[in-house]
Design brief:
The chain is α+β, with helices and mostly antiparallel strands and 61 residues long. It has helices at 5-17, 27-40; strands at residues 22-24, 44-48, 53-57. It has a three-stranded antiparallel sheet with strand order 1-3-2, covered by helices on one side.
Length: 61
């Protein structure tokens, strides 16, 4: 099975848009999510751990 990291990142960004947190277990995936977040201007808090990065949606002001 081929894993498309861009599709996985887009799916996680959709979760963020719906108010749910998202986890990226690789740096590549986290970078793709960050890129989409910046493009869509979604306010999030990023919590980087040894295991990966959590993206937590924030309220828009």
């Amino acid at each position: 099975m081929i894993i498309n990291r861009k599709e996985i990142a887009r799916a996680k960004v959709k979760e963020l848009q719906n108010g749910f947190s998202a986890f990226a277990d690789t740096k590549e995936e986290a970078q793709l999510i960050k890129k989409e977040i910046e493009k869509l201007q979604i306010p999030v808090h990023e919590d980087v751990t040894d295991l990966g990065s959590w993206f937590i949606p924030q309220e828009k002001n």
